[in-house]
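G., the chain you wanted modeled:
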Amino acid sequence: MSEQQQNQLNIEISEEVAEGQYANLAIITHSHAEFVVDFVNVMPGTPKSKVKSRIILTPQHAKRLLNALADNIQKFEEANGPIKDIEEVQIPFHFGGPQAQA
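Predicted structure as tokens:
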């Protein structure tokens, strides 16, 4: 068995997870030991929105995610042009824990 085959990671995904969840808001909080990213689908005119998914990361993995997103955005923009942030979302809310950042 080659070294490359030994280092390969076998990842499986269930049908339900493969379908994904749509989110148009990410709420990020952190403590000294972890980053918590809540993904929310906010619909206009709806007074209440639910967290669709919560991902908890170590600080090291959060930084790796940041770098991977930056790399993928750069590649996307090289192929498709700049991504324009057409609206600034300002939603006044607070639901416990540290101040949220998106």
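The beta strands are 25-30, 35-40, 51-57.

Shout if anything looks off.
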